[in-house]
Design brief:
Layout (H helix, E strand, L loop, with lengths): L1 H22 L3 H23 L10 H17 L4 H23 L4 H21 L1 H4 L5 E2 L17 H24 L1 H11 L1 H6 L4 H27 L1 E2 L6 H14 L6 H17 L5 H15 L3 H16 L1
Length: about 325
Amino acid sequence: MNTAYGRMGLLVLLALLIALPWLTPFFYIFIATQILILGLFAASFNLVFGYTGMLSFGHAAFYGVGAYATALLLQHLQWPLLACLLAAMAAGMILALIIGFFCVRLDEVYFAMLTLAFGMMVFGVIHQWRSVTNGSDGLSGFSVGSLGLGIHVQLGNPTVYYHVVLAIVVVAGLVLHRICQSSFGMVLRAIRQNPERVAFCGLDVRRYRLAAFTIAGAFAGLAGGLVAPFLRIASPELAHWTTSAQPVLMTILGGSSYFLGPFLGAGIFVLLETWISSLTQAWMLVLGIILALMVMFFRDGALGTVLNTLRAKRRQD
């Protein structure tokens, strides 16, 4: 029964998201698009963090590479958007495979520091390779033509692009959820809890970690591929270590133990940032205090806290 209610709730939420452009002011279409993209970015990170137990501080490298792959293809070859997104996924996956090959050999803080180092290397390459990336100015001036697959839509229309992003994020989310619920995902959760016992059972822990890291890089690349046409620019800041902090914070805010936690965390983060920045110039200080309090007092994340409260009420009834 709980599962049925949960599915019905998700269907209602999806219906509201589809109808959002006709229910809210135009400004919130941009906010919703940003939340969806960052939610996918955070969900890809959570495959590494929440399911496998590896804290990465360089996840923005795949996000940035995906954005630049899309921007370059749109600018020079005018590929359809769907083809660009596939290329962005491939770029993120290949980069994650290379970086992960070295990083998964280490554990805990050493893994985190090595991912940070590789992430800053990627940022440095993007920032310095002016002939390809245009350096600190980033790539801009590209236009999104067709979607692909013979589908003719006006991608320059924010409402249309919002619905395209929503469709892609939903499909990507379903694929990620299927991966997390598969036997592969069960092994990842076992590795998070006790890697020594998994290795004792005859499974190659490093290979599973590398696979999770590579898949996460592919979906982060997809999120980056979506953000470049949305922002109309691919800039080095997308690959900076400060951007890597965003999925960490969003995942913790929403709840790393729940698949939808990173999406909720992305919504909380973006809405708080938008609201507070409209009220004060010291918005970063205020936002930092609020987020710190939420992390301190909502140990299971916002989604985990809500679900635990509902379970406690059911037991009392």
